């Protein structure tokens, strides 16, 4: 059984989203705190980021924000989160997200969330990141992305084994089981990265 001490959660900062995404984020946060898992996130105070932090804190859990200084300057940082790493830019932020994480969880989000997720999948393909990547497909939000990844495989831009780089779930209550049952991935994956 995989030990899970810390996870990174990619998610949206939009305040205009459907309530069901906020409710699913609340369930996720409670599951992580219940299992004494430290949460790393983008540090924002609104949207799914804000909900994640609010619930982790209210449940007595530990959460760490990682944010570029320019976002702090415009006061995007969650004021109740006590542990913060302020970094120079977005590239440094993404690197820090993955340092020491035992799994990566992606909730629905916009272009920033998509970019972070796809970079993590690319790093995993190269064996530079080997931890579970869980795509939480709430309300079928990620169906088009999953279809695109499947097209990459069917058109031989990726191989069948690359499908094992991510796990898709629809219910955030399944998160621990999804992390535990994710296929193992090795640093040596770079040997099979090319198709």
UniProtKB/TrEMBL annotation:
Q: Give UniProt keywords alphabetically.
A: Cytokinin biosynthesis, Hydrolase
Q: Which biological process, per GO, is one annotated for this protein?
A: cytokinin biosynthetic process
One Pfam family named in its UniProt record:
Lysine_decarbox
Q: Output the Gene Ontology cellular-component terms.
A: cytosol
Q: Which GO terms describe its molecular function?
A: AMP nucleosidase activity
**What's its EC?**
3.2.2.n1
Source species, domain of life: Bacteria
Transmembrane stretches, by residue range? none
As its record notes, the protein acts as a catalyst of: AMP + H2O = D-ribose 5-phosphate + adenine
Q: Which family does it belong to?
A: Belongs to the LOG family.
Name of the molecule in the record: Cytokinin riboside 5'-monophosphate phosphoribohydrolase
